[in-house]
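User: Can you model how N-carbamoyl-L-aspartate sits in this protein?
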Amino acid sequence: MLGSGFLILTEKDQAGSPVRDADPAASANLFMLITFTIDGAGMEFVGRDVIDLKDFTRDEVECILKVSEEFEPIASGKERSRLLEGYVLCNLFFEPSTRTRLSFSSAMMRLGGSVTGFASSATSSAKKGETLSDTIRVVESYCDVIVLRSNKEGAARLAADMSSKPVINAGDGARQHPTQTLLDLYTMKKEFGKIDGLNIALIGDLKYGRTVHSLSYALTMFPVELSLVSPPQLRMPPEEISDLEEHGLKVKETWDISDVIKTCDVLYVTRIQKERFPDPTEYERVRGAYSITAAMLEGAKKEMIVMHPLPRVDEIAPDVDPTSHARYFQQAFSGIVVRMAVLSLVLGKRRG
Ligand code: NCD
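Assistant: Here's the modeled complex, given as structure tokens:
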């Protein structure tokens, strides 16, 4: 695994290097690929795992967002690309997914690459008792990059430690979901032209939701105001709040949705993570505790946007969809561009 900064050639790079690509242009320029830097800023992405945004600097995050923009025409199908032709992505999804798995696949395929993998543990050898490390040992020889989702915290890190190929964390239990966070940041930046100075409210299951854990940490890189809005049972764990504050983020906790709706630029709504409750009666007590409706948005700023990583259950009423505030479907589209950027960067291929 690589840290940030200039690239040092590691085993992972040798085994996972695009040098093995049959593309003569890629093969010819080993040096260029190995020393791949972005705009001379000394950032290195080739062969890198994407497990946790804590492993990335603000400059690196901004670089990924910038590279993402370049992929808009390809993601929307206006332009065609063979950038990742000959590369294989392996999706290992031990937990359900629609957007993350399909957008990784779509990103890879629209760039000319191929995709293999499984969509549930029920159809993999995990069902027969195979360990994650054995699965990774085998799968790394079938592909150039691995995308992994698991209900186990730390699974992606373990896989990255085992794998000579880059591993991208597509969600590990309630912990992290870095590419979701990148697409969330991309959506905000696209909307407001910047992230600095935004007033952002995270609403819902802040205890078990990995998207909000990932996003709140990433927001420590930017001078923003953050409100954490949840029923008392679903508060963000106090140690996580302390971590955010130690990283300099101004955090306000409340359960008054109407208060934040008037002041925020981004209302980031999340689903109650039913599957992560150790006790189903605990879930029953909070089920349906909040739902954002169009009427509730009447006092909001004109430019305020409602985001949601999706899937939604009942926390955003359908009457919000036609309002000028709804951005969750556009947000899901941004998943393609951001994942195109991440794949091309870790595989050492850049447009143009
Ligand atoms: C999220 C997840 O899996 O954490 N979904 C997604 O990737 N867009 C959010 C959720 O399941 O609630």
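A couple of observations from the model: The pocket of N-carbamoyl-L-aspartate is lined by residues 99-100, 171, 177, 180, 210-211, 271, 309-310 (CB under 6 Å). The CA atoms of residues 153 and 201 lie 25 Å apart.
User: Helpful, thanks.
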